Structure prediction request, 285 residues.
Amino acid sequence: MDLNIEIYLKEEELKLFKEIIVNSIKSRLESVKASIGIVALSGGVDSSLVAVLSKEAIGDKLLCLIMPEENISPREDIEHALELVKKFDINYRIININGAVDWFKKRFDEIDFKSKNERLAIANVKPRVRMVLNYLYANALNGLVIGTSNKTELLLGYGTKYGDIAVDFYPIGDLYKTQVWQLADYVGIPTEIVRKKPSAGLWVGQTDEEELGHTYFEIDRVLYCLVELELSVRETSKILNISEEAVNDVYRRVVASEHKRKIPIITRLSRMCLDKDWKYPVDRH
Prediction:
């Protein structure tokens, strides 16, 4: 089987993709007459890239919200976020989310969760609190929330439903993580942000790759084969020379998270069920 599985972007693609994304952010806000774009800036590479591209697209109409959880969010993430807004002259607010998260912890600590579920449930409160703040600002200022998830995360379902993946649009949602790193380098994001280990900051010491069980480089190559080349698990295993078990682990995540990429299912009662048959043709981007 002779297939090209090179997912790294070429120099001309970096320039082209940057222009496409910048134009898409600008046109998205213009199309709904939004006055401002809101980006949740964590200090990681994905949100930093979206912030920089949004700044180029809409200038001072961009507002970044830095929403750390004290004693959980790494200090370096806050420092990196502040370094970025200073370097690119971006408007921002810092909002500590401890009070909101503690409110939930104190009121639901008697629920009989199993320990793993309890930990995850509380962890998911954090991106949901940030989502509420994003939309508080967006609603108050006639804005849109600009998402920071990439293609790898969306395919794996590596995000919180109605949390960080609850946004108005995903400008980098068609870029694999490997490509996000490339484009971040290309637009001049500080090296220490691009090179640090990705983390959702859900608890102290958490890293994406440790939680997922594979590196992003490994995951991206598997996803590229399964999604872009439409290969089977067995074919992907063979062409990448890795075990079927490893490919299956990624494949199962994609299948299991399908619900995160769709609106909730509507029970069919008519000929034109909204999630299956008919959509108003407003958005063709």
User: Anything to note?
Assistant: Residues 115-140 form the longest helix (26 residues).
